[in-house]
Design goal:
The chain contains no helices and 59 strands. By secondary structure, the chain is mainly beta. The protein has a nine-stranded mixed β-sheet with strand order 1-23-24-25-26-27-28-29-2, with no helix packed on it. Strands 31-39-38-33-34 form a five-stranded mixed β-sheet, with no helix packed on it.
Length: 747
């Protein structure tokens, strides 16, 4: 325990830890020699020593193992629990701004603050049974802070009351229930509590009473089971407040600073009440423990010494130590200073004659850590519009000498993506950025198609490189979302374009959701079906039937209008007859919301040049309301296309091409009508078809596909700019490359 002083002149700190000896039997048997610093434990001369992680610092000790921590070059902290029996170490997850501690027992406390006295949200891990469930205790809900751990389910805590006074409580978590029991027998105005480790059912606490300018220091032994004070002691004011408390079966002790140059330890014989002051020396980084009636103390790089509190005899223990910890099994653990021949861990215990003995219990080395998946970095929801079509997935393993097999499965379709991740150059985080595509192989080619929206199972299997041990598994679920695209027929966020060839076969081109190398690419071509040659007009109309996927409307030679509902997997349901008399129209345009009701509408022009508005209903049996006349004079145009809201005004827009090849923009007014036309430009007569194709490049604005009849590229993409006077900029594409004469209708 690192002490802090209340006086600025005390620049150095004291670290106090406790090793206790029970009355009667139960002490650790050691070699007969009083100071066998390098010997193995008695009866275990040939036993293999435990491994202390190289470059780590000792953080605490229990009866079955010890806690250590270290930092790598990137500043990443590793906290390990290592058993004394030579078994595998356990890596503990500690919050980035949190801390961990162990107070003599095998229960590691992980908290939400770096200082133990500031921890309020705690996780208790019983390392005597590492597979046991952790216990979470929220002291913040009780307005409390942590003092020391009492059991695998209980802690001692200081509770602040509404009136500003404090109480000492044992807080216990059983299942989902938290209980709090006040310690009886303490002064009513006691505050600023500090606590030792629990030993033999007792804990030594320190406190302050009285007004700030007349404070009195007190110490009390508490019977944990009874929840009452069993003994009290007075103490002089100290620059170390109530910190540094230690006790054994024979003595209690704490720092006593009444001198400007030296640090003293005050100790009280628990049987006689006799008090002794022992000087450690000039202020420095002193650390000390009690082993029976011996005070063991030292500074880094200086010999560890022991002094008997009963006889005054002193001894040199023959080692130097940089870190100290104590255990509830009546022993202490010292980390030897590297470079002095004292590397490793040394146990200090009472020998058969009661004097301290030193036994080496751990050598520096690389600990064996079981392979585990410590952390999972898989988002619950991945919005690919916000992440440019990619999602980053990661897993932090306990070891780097492994590989990770990742499988992503789309629940609805069963489509899978697999990837093997090898060990990273540094650290233990295995990660990759998934482009949200699936590889689909056919006899002729391999296609990479956008992964559909929806729920995914994200499974990871970690395996050691040497194939020893069992693989470890982890599974999470993730939802992929994108903004709705009315031209998306397989729910993967990307535009689908339908093309009918001269044999009446309809094909669906699945474009990539994001441009690659500045171009729009076809991901996959899929045959939809034959028999589509009977239709005069085919139009992708967006959501006309009320379900999410886009739909298709087709008008045959006799004027019957048919609706093909999209099923969301790229296929179309059998056609449904929804109207007659449509032979009077020579041009259709659909898919845009023209009146601001969030439904796709349709417009049509007749031979007389009248433009008619058909409001979308969302009813697949009757997808459009009765027509409403918008205006006349549209006979001057040989092509009209609904392009969505490309100008940023109230609703969807139209573009119309006249017979001289000039393209005009009609901005929707949000009422099913249009503002006066704006000239876009000439030369558009080179194209046989214009298709309002939704947002092709994920910039939030719908775009236009222009299909030609000659040239290297069969189609060009005109991305919208949001500028009314110059609404399009051209972008190349491989869509229908060298296929400018292959199709007679595009939708």
């Amino acid at each position: 325990m690192q002490l802090r002083t209340t006086r600025s002149r005390l620049a150095a700190a004291v670290t106090a830890v406790l090793a206790v000896t029970a009355l009667g039997a139960g002490t650790l048997a050691t070699a007969p020699a009083a100071f066998a610093a390098m010997s193995a434990p008695s009866g275990q001369a040939d036993a293999t020593l435990s491994v202390f992680p190289e470059g780590a610092d000792l953080a605490g000790v229990g009866t079955s193992g010890f806690l250590s921590y270290s930092y790598d070059r990137a500043g990443t902290r590793t906290v390990l629990w290592t058993p004394f029996d030579g078994g595998m170490s356990t890596r503990l997850k500690v919050p980035e701004d949190g801390g961990s501690t162990v107070a003599g027992s095998d229960v590691v406390v992980i908290g939400d603050a770096g200082r133990t006295d500031e921890m309020s949200k705690l996780t208790l891990r019983n390392m005597a049974d590492p597979s046991a469930p952790a216990v979470d205790i929220d002291l913040g809900a009780l307005n409390g802070t942590y003092l020391t751990v009492v059991s695998p389910t209980s802690v001692l805590a200081q509770i602040m009351k509404d009136d500003g006074t404090t109480e000492l409580h044992i807080v216990t978590k059983t299942g989902a229930t938290t209980t709090s029991r006040e310690i009886a027998g303490l002064p009513e105005d006691a505050t600023d509590f500090a606590g030792s480790m629990v030993h033999d059912g007792s804990v030594l606490v320190g406190y302050v009473t009285g007004p700030e300018d007349e404070q009195t220091y007190g110490r009390a032994l508490i019977d944990v089971a009874a929840g009452t004070v069993s003994a009290t002691y007075s103490a002089v004011p100290s620059g170390y407040d109530s910190a540094g408390l230690v006790f054994s079966a024979s003595h209690v002790a704490w720092p006593d600073q009444t001198d400007n140059t030296e640090l003293y330890i005050s100790s009280v014989d628990r049987k006689t009440g006799e008090q002794t002051r022992t000087s450690l020396g000039l202020y420095g980084e002193w650390q000390y423990v009690l082993v029976g009636d011996w005070l063991v103390y030292g500074e880094p790089w200086t010999p560890v010494r022991a002094v008997s509190l009963t006889s005054g005899e002193t001894r040199d223990l023959g080692i130097t130590a940089s870190a100290w910890a104590s255990s509830a099994d009546n022993t202490a653990l010292l980390q030897g200073n590297p470079g002095t021949g004292d590397d490793g861990l040394f146990r200090v215990a009472a020998g058969q004659d009661g004097t301290p003995t030193v036994t080496k219990v751990a050598e520096p080395g690389k600990p064996v850590i079981p392979l585990e998946i410590d952390e999972v970095h898989v988002p619950d929801v991945a919005n690919l519009d916000k992440s440019r079509g990619r999602v980053t997935l990661g897993w932090t393993l306990s070891r780097a000498d492994a590989y990770l097999d990742v499988t992503l499965t789309h629940i609805a379709t069963g489509k899978k993506f697999t990837k093997r991740l090898t060990a990273p150059a540094t650290g233990t985080e295995f990660s990759f950025a998934w482009d949200a595509v699936f590889e689909e192989a056919t006899p002729d080619e391999i296609s990479f198609v956008n992964a559909p929206n929806g729920k995914y199972a994200v499974e990871a299997k970690a395996t050691l490189l040497n194939s020893t041990g069992e693989p470890v598994y982890q599974r999470r679920f993730m939802n992929i979302t994108r903004a709705y695209n009315p031209h998306d027929f397989n729910d993967n966020g990307s535009t689908d374009v339908f093309a009918r060839d001269f044999n009446g076969v309809l094909w669906r081109e699945d474009l990539r959701d994001w441009p690659y190398y500045g171009e729009i690419w076809t991901a996959k071509t899929t045959r939809v079906g034959s028999g589509w040659g009977i239709y005069k007009q085919i139009e992708a109309v967006g959501n006309a039937g009320g379900a999410t996927p886009g739909d298709v409307v087709a008008v045959d030679g006799s004027g019957v209008q048919w609706l093909y509902l999209g099923k969301g997997d790229g296929t179309l349901a059998p056609r449904v007859k929804v109207g007659t008399g449509w032979q009077i129209y020579n041009k259709l345009a659909a898919g845009s919301d023209l009146d601001g009701d969030a439904r796709a509408d349709l417009v049509a022009t007749d031979a007389a040049g009248v433009l008619w508005f058909y409001k979308g209903t969302g009813n697949y049996a009757k997808p459009y309301a009765p027509r409403v006349r918008v205006g006349g004079g549209w006979q001057i145009y040989n092509h009209i296309t609904a392009v969505g809201n490309i100008a940023g005004t109230a609703a969807g827009d139209l573009v119309a091409r006249d017979t001289s090849g000039i393209l005009w923009l009609y901005q929707g007014n949000g009422r099913g009508g249009f503002a006066p036309r704006v000239k876009v430009g000439g030369g558009w007569g080179a194209f046989s078809q214009l298709v309002g194709a939704g947002d092709l490049d994920n910039d939030g604005r719908p775009d236009l596909i222009a299909y030609g009849t000659s040239g290297e590229y069969g189609a060009s993409v005109y991305r919208s700019t949001g500028n009314v006077t110059a609404p399009f900029s051209r972008r190349t594409t491989n869509l229908y490359k060298y296929q400018g004469r292959s199709y007679n209708h595009i939708a």
